[in-house]
Batch of 2 targets.
Target 1
Amino acid sequence: MNALQQEIAQLIIDTLNLEDVTVADISPDLPLFGEGLGLDSVDALELALALQKRYDIRIASDSKDARQHFTTVASLASFVQAQRDACAN
Amino acid sequence: MNEQIAQERHWSAYKERGSLFLMRLTAFSVRVFGRRLLAPVLYLIVLYFFVSARSARRNIGQYQTYLAAWSDHAALRPTPGSVFEQFMAFADNLLDRLDVWRGRLRFEQVQLIDPTGVRARLLRSQHGARGEMLVVTHLGNPDVCRAMAELSERVPLNVLVHNRHVAQFNRLLGEAGDRSMRLIQVSELDTAMMMDLSQRMERGEWLAIAGDRVPLHDARRVTVDFLGHPAAFPQGPWLMAGLLRCPVNLLCCLKVEGHYRIYLDTFLASARWERGQRDEAIRGWVQRYADHLSAQCLIAPRQWFNFYAYWQPVEPPAKKEATHAH
């Protein structure tokens, strides 16, 4: 797990108040929804808000892409990284 | 409750009776003819509505029956006269709403009942304090938000509505010289909308949203007890408050003895739910809100202006949850 992935895992725990979960429990490839971490659509919304605030990025609403970015911590991290790179250029 | 009632038209199918078109027409007519000349015309329109809309009559009768039984006030039981009275109160209400929209109902004429100091916090937002949420109802005069905007002294108030005619309403407001109130159309909770609202709140703007009407295509609803019978209420306002983690206040404006009273009540110091307890938390808030609403119905029993079948406990077919995400 790289630094950004760890940061995002921690953000998920803090935002959603997952008391009995630690960063180590959220492996980068663990599905966030359904069977994996068990998040739902309102959690996703809450998480999206937190990510936008924290990383100053825009998350397009209701696009298929956006949904794919939210599948795992790894996909979220690469999305955030891509957005930051885009902003930096 | 029989099937016929359950299949009643949804409130949005009424095309906001007395809404945009009427607002425009009457705003124009009031300017030209004055309220005194317009009042009989409006009474005639509402009389026609009373005679022609059997289901609306039945729905109001049902409301009065439930209110009488719930409060144990036999005097509140419906009679043809009492149902008619409620329709006439609606005509009166429309005329008052016009006055509000034209800026005729001044803040000085309105009595403010604010035991928990909501207005003081509203004024604090002028100096950078974070905004809060106001949940309004269709009991009494919800357009009094306009007077609220005045009351807030330049604290911007965003009114969230499901109406598609938002742009036109905003133009109407602009024409009326009102810059502190803005209507925002919400259909579904999405990240862009929530981000925008969150930023507005950080800037000290306030949000107002109705808590008593379930949007047509929104499966996010919760059924609680209202006047002794199960009724569906929207989850949307409460989800929004939880996502924004903001305080929630209740706003209601009733006409009592010919004068408007604005009731402001602090409802939640901060909307938050425990992990995995979201649905329970929201159900609890909505039940408390419905109880508050019941008590306010007793203050102004004839000012309940939801003419559609309000008590429809039928749960909609479960929608695929994930379609709302992101």
Target 2
Amino acid sequence: MLSLMPSNIKLILCAALLVLTAASCEEEFIDRDPVYSIDSENYFNSESDYYNALIAAYDLLQPSYLNVMLGEIASDNTLAGGESANDVIGIQQVDDMIHTPVNDQLDNIWDWMFAGVNRASFLLEFQDKIDFEGKAQLLAEARFLRAYYNFELVKWFGPIPLKETRFSLGDETSIPRSPVSAVYDFIEADLMAAISELAVTAPQVGRVSRGAAQALLGKVHLYQEEYTDAARLLQEVINSGNYRLTDDYDQIFELAGEHGPGSVFEVEYTDAEGAGFGCLQCSEGNVAVGFNGIRNYTGPLFDGGFSFNVPVQEVYDAFAPGDGRRDVAILNIDAWAEETGASFGIGFEHTGFYNRKYIARKGDSNIGDQNLTNPNNYRSIRYADVLLMAAEALNATGQDEQARDYLNQVRRRAFGDMDHDISASGDALRDFILAERRLELVGEGHRFFDLVRTGRAAAAIDGFTTGKHELFPIPFQEIQFSNGNWTQNPGY
Amino acid sequence: MPRFILFVVLLGANFGLFAQSFPLSGTVLDAESGDPLIGASVIVDEAVESGTLRGTVTDIDGSFQLADITTGTVLRITYTGFVPTTVTVASAEPLTISLGTDVQALDEVVVIGYGTQRKRSVTGAVSTVDSETIDELKPVKIEQALQGTVAGVNVTTQSGAPGAGLNIRIRGVATNGQNAPLVIIDGYQGDLSTVNPSDVATITVLKDAQAAVYGTIGANGVILITTKTGERNQPTQLRYNTYYGTQETSRSLNQLNATEYALLLNEAYAAGGQALPFPDASGLGFGTDYQDEVFENAPILSHDLTASGGSDKMTYSIGGSYLDQDGIIGGDKAGFSRATGRVALGVDLASRLKLSTNAIFTNISRRSLSEGGLGSVLFNALNAPPTLPLRDADGAFSLVPSTPGLGIEVINPAAQIANTFNDYTLNKLNGQATLDYSVVDGLTLTGRVGFNTSNSESRNFNKRLSYGGKVFDVTRSSVNQNRINDNNYSLDLYGTYVKTLGGNHNLTATLGTTVYRELGDGLFATGFDVPNNDFEFADLSLATGTSPEGARDVGSYSYDERRLSYFGRVQYDYAERYFLTAMLRRDASTKFGPENRTAYFPSFTAGWIALDGERLSGNSPIDLLKLRISYGILGNDQILNNGYIGTLSGEATYVFDGILVNGTAIGALPNPALQWEEAKKFNTGFDLNLLDYRVTITADYFVNTRDKLLISNIPVSGIVGTAAPGAAAPTVNAGAVRNSGLEFAINYRQRINSDWRVNLSYNFATLDNEVLEVNNGTGFIEGGGFGVGQLAPSRMEVGLPIGYFYGYQTDGIFQTAGEIEGAPSQTALGAAAQPGDLRYVDVNGDGVIDPNDRTYLGDPIADLTMGFNAQVEFRRFDFTAYAFASLGSEIVRNYERALSDVNRLDYYLQRWTGLGSTDEVPRVTTAATANQVFSDFYVEDGSFLRLQTVTLGYTLPLAIGKRDNSSLRLYFSGNNLLTVSNYLGYDPGASSGAPIGGGIDFGFYPIARSFLVGANLSL
């Protein structure tokens, strides 16, 4: 047997010393605190902690640019466009209604909206930790935001998992996709709680007001065809006297028109801080604006972009003569080039039209990336939208006179006269209201969902399959992650 | 070893004794060939009282003179590669001393981590590269000395730009995370990228479980660097090496000239139903060759100077070096310079206490150009239209028009170079001090402090400029600056006990501890509105503009990571024939979660000298046969810090009241169970020496299985919010990869006669990589990028090599409309097929071509790599050649922008133009096609053979004053003279190094071909 020589006292001593001195300090040495970091589970110790977490919950509104853009492209209003048939294949596929569960952009919408849900839930999870004056307002805003994100998710994907606190890893295998009705109940509960606490006037520009929460709840009811509730809530907004139609439709979409009298809720963007293609959700600018922009543009007023989301001739032609909205909403690039001497490029699926409401304007500082950092706020809920939704709800509950009044308010602004007032009733009036929604809101991301909820999508959209395309597929990998807990939407 | 005994022949048998001193002369010869040995040390072995050492070195004829010698004086003669010997002077007659070749193969000492071992006793897979090889290769960076010289070590360039990083992979890619090996410089953890190659004495590579003494940091293999020290009892020796040369690109791609380009464009436009862009293409000529415009001949210059020597109580080595290299693109805009200073001392403080210490100071300056992606200089050079003159009529750089066919992402590359302004400086001090205390005979205690401290600063100026509506336009000038401070230190304390029991039982036991800590921080800031829009004023002090309110123009980070390790090793052999080593290491690391903070890493190696020349009958050609086997478990801890803690490190920025507001949000999700990757390494092999040690063969077979792969940001369900800005999924131990292969190295060296000496070596390594497990729900992880907005082209997936290419398989070209009718629809890929388009294979057989038809298209891992090295000496001439080959890898051509008007490679001249014209290259058209999706059309064979270095040298005798032993060698050398490959791109040997997505070529900056003239002066 070979062993250390027991007689060698020196050796034993040295070895023992070596181990002992080192062992005693292991605990101290290794259990160091991470440098300059805050533990997420020991937060919410002051008012500012809640406020800071609320900012985080607002942050995910910005990536909803994709919902707006793709909601338009999916509809009959626009084509995907871009550089080539393979430029952002996910967008191209949605345009052609050939999208599958493998689609990066749909995956983004799922991921980003759930990220918003989770950030709002983080705040709500710790709502009882401390008390301070004004906490109710902050929590109400968080509830509104969670409702906003969940509403997007239910519009795009139908049944989704629900949880009062943050989702944690493993929930995807245990929490089922709640039926749409339960999702709406959850959204309504959040919004009702929010409405009761929200200030009528938001504490800062960009934060949510009571009117915005009411309008969203009205919209949520409208989507469920709960017309009485919808009409009540939307009329509360209308009758509050806090909003009116901006006099000139053209002013709404320029920088100066942000938060005008007709603005109920906007998603805030800035040209002050950008991001790269690796993290589009990180941009503080409106990414859709660069994507929508005119390809290879040189000329006045506008900046260039990637020529996605190009309006089709049919929607351009849908505007009646004298409708001032057409040339505000849709840029006829050939006419514009002829008028101003501007030059432009021809992208994929070039139609000759651009989504003028949301293309880049000159003079923005576009810090970061000029195409990803445009400051154009998304006018998420406009007063005209509220009027038209109210009109739709009232028409559905037989209150055509009030419905016509709201509709004609919108039309009078569009035409600048009362000669184009609608006098129809009943289903004919409904058709007029829905047609008006398309024209008033073209380019704003509502069209696809309006077509779906009114059952008109199959007739309007090429390739649309009833019973399938009302919902988008759950991302392929989510179905895999759920390990059998979730099933794919029908038809995919 | 009777064949190699020393001959001391005393000539002139005059035995008359003289009491007084006399001058002595003599000659030192090679016993085998009888040639004189030039530069052998002849030292008078006497008590050093005055502190000066007496001795000399042999001159060109092998002769020496010494004054003041008496009979009985003992001379010690040493010469590298020969057995050192001593001679007692018997008379004043000239001496002839013959030295036998050193059979160093066995007595050579190999560094194995926390100690050394005689080569004969090594039972792990250990390879070494000595300083002679490094001298021959003259690598600008030390990593290059491992390419082709060590079987199983593959070195790829990230770029040919001066100072660019290199990737070292020992026995393949084992993880989707960090695959770089551990680097130990003189016993402490260091960094290869800043090492001056001429400071390196040996590089030792631990490839198998031999590395297990490094526990949780050893899984990727270990590279041990020993820096140069002086030799005892040697007079001061000065060595000066220099070379100067010119570099040029090793490759230019064959592109279309202006006329070809115009005609091809016309064809494409016509096919797309558009007006011809060049109705008259005559007179366009060759146009502008943008590759020519960006590539240039660039100088490279190197000096290094070392003084070394020693007395019987101390050794010293002092050196300095300077390297200056311009880029083959951009010249000094891509310049790299490195200056180093080094001091190494070894001192016997007392008879039982030895100190060895060294310190190295490094200064690196570097400037760089955009490279390796869309928007890089080369990417622009390849895509800019040849019809565009370099400069316009006013002499300004032409703007690439923002037409649809050219897009907004291609700019004039020469303008891009001119408008790039940046600099980077690194100052680094590293070193170590080691105390060896011989407590009693057989027991040595070693204490060591090693440290690295480095500070870097960099500056990047974004000039306000316009390329005419391109994405690179800058509307507001700015300067980004940063300061980064990285430090680490390690403390080693270990004891080594050596004992021989009962004559044949030899035991070496090592027990010790290592404390390691790294800490540092970085500061970043941006200033806007640089005065005069000029680099000269680009500093935060002058650029006082800020971002709009609320935006942060500053940033910082800091870290503090620690590791505490204990290790023990027992090496036992019986009669130096049977060897057994067992090791155990315990690591506690801040990298791991509280649930798994400590880890144990056991390993063993064993060897048997089955045949030993001394015991064999006289005529056996075999000198030695050693069989080896090893198995061990090692770890990899190279993951992001604090992965087990949920921190508020996410991004939370929004806009209130029209200005940016910053809040707090959750960053990466924590994984409290986070632990190390586990590498199970099995190796078996043999070492065989033949024909009087002229032939050395080493062969190894290995199987390395990496379990519990640390997958950072592992894809998880989006419902947990990991897609939020600044958030990320947790790092999870969720995969396994296996690498196996065979390594073989053979070396033949012989002194043929007094004129000729040859040394030939060849090695190869095979590698078989397979992913065994990806436990993330989907069974695969995607990565890499191809084209614009396309699906990820690379995957890690069970049953396939890591990072394999995943896309559409093609089956030639559709020749007729009839063929298309009968084929599955390709519309889902972008457009319905037309004759002349690529025909894709319906892999899943569902009747349509869609993303579900993507499949394996190859992988970037070479199946076989080989190195071949030859050194031949003829009289005063020496010749060296090193070649390297890599076979069986694939590489993706991704430097072609899929736009209609960009320039193309000339293989498009063989495009499809009609029925039967080709079955390879699709038609050109401006209309939508599905030809641009990632398919095997873009995947090429990346096999290559490269002649890395060829050197021809001549050694001159040189007499300077009394130092008549000096020599001067002059040489010519060519690097990367020839690369044989079918690859269309610049460099088949380049890789980003990413485990998933490596081998996708965005226009890798080609390595330089260089021609050098150099001199080695020894005094």
